[in-house]
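#struct-help
A.M.: can someone run this one for me? Single chain, 521 residues.
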Amino acid sequence: MENIFFPTQSDDEGRLKFAPYSLRKIEAALLEYGFTKDEVIIADPRKLDRAIGPETKAIGLTVHDPLGYSAVSQLNACLFRLINWWPAPSYTAAAFGDIIKNPLLKKYNSKLIIGGPGIWQLEEHPEMFKEWGIDCLVSGEAESIAGPLFESAVKGEAVLPERAASGKPLRSDKVPIIRGPSTGGVVEITRGCGRGCQFCTPNLLFFGSIPKENILKEVEIEVRHGIRRIELHSEDALFYGRKLGSFEVNHEAIVDLFTSVKKFPGVRQVATDFFACSTIKSAPKTVKAMSEIMELDKKHPGYVETGLETVSPRLVQNIMPGKVKPYTIEEWPDVIDDALGILDDNHWFTVASMMTGLPKETEQDVIRSIEFIDRIKHHNVFVWVFPLMPLRAMLKNAAKWAPEYTPLRQELILKATRHSISLINREAPRILKVLPVWARPPALLALKYVTGMTLHFFKGADEAIARHEDRLNLYKDLQYAHNKEGEAVMHVSSVVNELVKIGGGSTTLLPEEEQNLLQGS
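D.P.: on it. Structure tokens below:
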């Protein structure tokens, strides 16, 4: 079953043919530093016995959501609780547990170095480092420090630091070029964001556009290995080529890049993954041009993510004032509506995220969000409302604003989910066009059944909300600690464990990259 849903391709040595893009970047950084191709392998997690041996001195693991604390995991758990089901243990949490407990990791006294966007979850449990066998956690742009760090591990010259962080941001023209194909044909075109949202990791990275010649070099590598669909990755594709300090879209640079990639020999399809509503509204001509280059139409739509987060002007001002630029905070709801209309006109489906449980969020703010979903539901937009976990800049003040998940907040989560499931149900034939023709009829039947049953179960949740029943029961038994400044902070893990209790405690999430290892030997 695992091989059907999460297949991997690897050779007899356990070397993955297609690997997560982040690991390809680390591999490139190590090779640039001086390691040889024979010394670095991105390993198939199902063939660790072939990839790890007596010569293995260092093992790197990338994690995205190892303990199930991500927004998607929280939403899944919330939905299960709202329909009075306990969430099942997640595949990736179980996969991470299987890997971290694999005796091969420490059989030859190899150093274990862990990085990736999910390390904050591990940082919540420093008491587990010894049991997990972690020698070093790496945060930030690991390409800049991977070489010296792995060299120290391989040579055994010193005890590795428990925590390591990248220092000066990498210049965009210094980001290593991948040496092998990535899973999904991903190619990075920008790094960082610069809008300043408190809850977001990319905000911590220095913004830069990757030079076009480097992008095309990576496209060539992907195509050479049989990939025909290129996913141009960024925090906002409409930011490509923009000047630092400006929010003005560089139409010529974007059109030139997308045209060059689309016309690259061997490329059949170009996609991208994220737009910001403010840049969409400010650049309808560019969106139209991109859509034409990508050959989108009603039968072959594009899919893109965007973050709405909240429509409360007061909350926008508090946590993400830069997200609306070049518009005013008061214009944000109109900006979203107009942006979604532009995407509709150009044959895009949008996956939009909102949050509840923001600092100082009031019932009136929640009502605004509920009403706003009604306002935008005519667009081709899937809306998912995530319960916020206090991270990054918010974490140290979390204890001061931990919300209760009142009936209104439960209603907001349900309303958004019901709308999105109904849209999936209605647009299933178009959505499933990505599948082979033979797979579409059974997939359509399965999808219709799942969505229908989900909506049926939601009726019971509606009745519970009407009785003012709190089925989520969040934030009832928080654990607190104190940081060095003496301010109360909340352990994220206690909230999640309260949310997704199963017996002794477990988690739920969607499959990600935890089961992929980069092993330096």
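A.M.: thanks! The two ends are 31 Å apart (CA to CA).
D.P.: also worth noting: Confidence is low (pLDDT under 50) at residues 475-480, 482-490, 498-521.
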